[in-house]
């Protein structure tokens, strides 16, 4: 005779097998949730990747200002003509001076706040698309700014995130961030181009 082990593992009287079945059902329901199915179809981001993105993004946002400034410094290295659009720091040449410039930090923080809103709510496709299109359209007022300028931020953004996250920035993480930032920037391009069309008519 052996001791009979109780199969009840929680206060509701469910057995371990029943709890596992419930967990599997919940996971299946979440995976098949129309919101996440739509997100994967539109962006190519799965629910698991979304969770990974949101978790790592919190690490980026802890150093929001530094990451944003680094992103702009990298942008100006590859697209020096864009710096001329910012009269507050267009004449600064050294990276140290740029990093210490309050105007650049303020602008970088503003941009990072927009990216934060988009990435944090990226599972709400319609809301994020509307916000990004409006943000893109708002750049019509800047003389000399072209919609393609948005796309120039992609690689500097990825590099700045990589610097910020360090060893936490894996190949898998990079592929997720590439999908997210490409969607964000392309939507802003579309918003500005639509605004330019409307302005011309």
Question: Care to describe what's here?
Answer:
This protein is mostly helical and 201 residues long. The protein folds into two domains: 8-43; 45-200, Orthogonal Bundle (Globin-like), CATH 1.10.490. The protein is 68% helix and 0% strand. It contains nine helices and no strands. It has helices at 16-31, 34-43, 47-61, 64-78, 95-99, 102-120, 125-138, 154-165, 171-200. Helix 6 runs antiparallel to helix 7 (125-138), helix 7 crosses helix 9 (171-200) and helix 8 (154-165) runs antiparallel to helix 9. The longest helix is centred in the last third of the chain and has 30 residues, at 171-200. The protein is globular, with a radius of gyration of 22 Å. The termini are far apart.
Key descriptive features of the protein:
mainly alpha; single chain; globular; 9 helices; 201 residues; 2 domains; Globin-like; 68% helix
